[in-house]
Structure formats: C-alpha cells, structure tokens
Automatic annotation (TrEMBL):
One of its GO terms (molecular function) is ATP binding. Gene3D superfamilies: P-loop containing nucleotide triphosphate hydrolases (3.40.50.300). Pfam families: ABC_tran (PF00005). Belongs to the ABC transporter superfamily. Residues 30-267 form the ABC transporter domain. The keyword Transport applies. Keywords: ATP-binding, Nucleotide-binding, Transport. This is Peptide/nickel transport system ATP-binding protein. It comes from the Bacteria.
C-alpha cells in the first residue's frame, strides 16, 4: 500500500459496531423423506451474535459445514435470516428504508476465495474496476477513484489495459480486493481469500488486508477454515461449530488455551500441517 493519506483510526471497544448480527437463526426446509410426512428442517445457524467495529479485523473459523458460508450470505444481505436481525450502522437492514439498504449494499463488500471466477475473463482491468460503480449507481470522478484504489492495493496504472489471464494469482486477488474497494466500503468480508493461493504469496495478500484495516479504518471480517491465517490477520476470532459460535477469543489465547472441542481440533490441524504463518501469528 502506498498511500497513507488517512490517519489510522483508533479501534475502540466502546465504538458502535458498523455491522452486526443479533440472535440470527437460519433454517432450511429439506426434501420430504416419505410421502405424507412433514418436510424436515435443518438449523444451519443457531442464535448467532456477531459484530465488527470500524478499524477492527475479526475472524470467523470453523470446520467444513459449520455454517460460515450461510453466515456470510446473511451478513451481506444475500439471504434473509429466519429469525434475528442484521444491523448496519445500528439499523436493521431488512426493515430500514431503501436509502439505508442502498448504503448497506455499497458499504459491505466481499472478496471471495477464487479471484479468477469473480472476474470476467473478457474484461480489461479498467472496465472491471468501473463495473461496481455502474451497478451500484455511484456518481463522481470514476477515473480518479480507479487511480486511488489502484494505489491503495499497490497496482500500477499500466495494469488497467490488461486482461485477467495476464495476471498471477496473487495479483488477481489484489484486483478482486480493488474491485471490492471501488464503492468505498466500510466493511470488507474476506471469505477464504488466500486458500487458493501459493503459500509464498499468501502473506502479501494478508498484509494488504491488514494495511487496509489500519490505513482506511475498514472493518474486516475474515472467514476461513485455517485458524493460522485468520490469527495472523485479526485481533478477535469466533469459532463456529454446527451452526453455533462455541468460542470467542484473541488468536493467541485460542492457540494456547483452546476451550471448545472445535477450537482444539482446528489448533490440532495446524500443528499437523507445516505452516509458516502459524509461527508469525504466535510471534
Ligand atoms: N440452501 C441450502 N439448503 C439446505 N441445506 C443447506 C443450504 N445451504 C447450506 N446448507 C447446509 O448448511 C450447512 C452449513 O453449510 P455452509 O456452506 O454454511 O457451511 P461452511 O462452514 O461454509 O462449509 P464449507 O467450509 O464447506 O463451505 C451444511 O450442512 C449445508 O449442507
């Protein structure tokens, strides 16, 4: 990151969360097993409380099927919870007036696991960066915004004429982050943002996310199954298991004194896999 025009914002525990879930429960109705029997329901999220403040990076970890993707879909407004509330800047996004919902959509952006599938292969980078401004109907000096965001993610202007296949995996994830930043979000939700990348370039993307939190005062929600990458990037981690948050703690405490069985399993998984990032997180 090359711009440091914005002074770092203090992360204050007394600050109001910018995005929060209160007692969110999500159930899905499954196919009927037998004729004349009621359709069974599956509780995927069970009374979840979760929040993030400006300038704070929080993690969400859990084994496969624990409910992370469902939580992400609800946190971004793609899915409405069966029970509970999603609040952006203190107001329920499902009952607020359209202008607040529009602000919520611009202000909460997602970076997905695989940047190749989130970018149109036929679009040059410049067009790709402009697209969120058009779809979200954001007015203003679009060219200036493109240059500002390129600078924030450490990409040069001559990249604007290139197509996705001309970039490496790490550069593509940088571009995906740039696209997410175009609308000037307050919250970035990174869903497994480095698990498709070589270990050698994972740290660059993780450091970029950390810089954005520090320099822009972004709120970051980092979702992954690997506790070590989440620990490297965040200051508070929630552990999910079977649709519930079973433990919340500082990364170091979770590593050294895991209480829940799900946390112990995640720590055990790291200890059995050689990982340079785990060492960084503990340093
Ligand atoms: N639309 C749906 N209908 C029925 N069941 C669903 C639906 N979406 C998710 N599930 C189920 O909900 C549970 C949680 O899924 P989810 O994808 O949220 O977990 P996850 O932690 O993101 O897993 P992974 O890390 O493997 O992506 C799983 O048992 C899944 O099969």
């Amino acid at each position: 990151m090359t711009t440091h025009t914005n002074a770092p914002l203090p992360t204050n525990e007394a600050m109001r969360p910018i995005l929060e879930m209160r007692q969110v429960t999500q159930t899905y109705t499954l196919a009927r097993q037998k004729l004349f029997e009621a359709r069974p329901t599956l509780t995927v999220l069970d009374h979840i409380d979760f929040d993030v403040r400006p300038g704070e990076a929080v993690g969400l970890v859990g084994e496969s099927g624990s409910g992370k993707t469902t939580l992400t879909r609800i946190l971004t407004g793609m899915e409405q919870p069966r029970e509970g509330h999603v609040l952006f800047d203190g107001r329920d996004v499902w009952t607020a007036e359209p202008s607040h919902r529009q602000l919520f959509r611009r202000s909460v952006q997602v970076v997905m696991q695989n940047p190749r599938s989130s970018l149109d292969p036929r679009m040059r980078l410049g067009a790709s960066l402009l697209e969120p401004l058009r779809s979200l109907r954001i007015e203003g000096d679009h060219a200036a915004r493109v240059y500002q965001v390129l600078d924030q993610v450490g990409l040069s202007r001559n990249a604007l004429e290139r197509f996705p296949h001309e970039f490496s995996g790490g550069q593509l994830q940088r571009i995906a982050i740039a696209r997410a930043l175009m609308s000037g979000p307050k919250v970035l939700i990174a869903d497994e943002p480095v698990s498709a990348l070589d270990v050698s370039i994972q740290a660059q993307v993780l450091n970029l996310l950390k810089d954005l939190v520090r320099d822009l005062g972004l709120a970051l929600v980092f979702i992954a199954h690997d506790l070590s990458v989440v620990a490297y990037t965040t200051s508070r981690v929630s552990v999910m298991s079977a649709g519930r948050i079973v433990e919340i703690g500082k990364p170091l405490d979770l590593f050294t004194h895991p209480k829940a069985e799900a946390t112990r399993n995640l720590v055990g998984a790291i200890l059995t896999v050689e990982s340079g990032l785990a060492g960084n997180a503990l340093a």
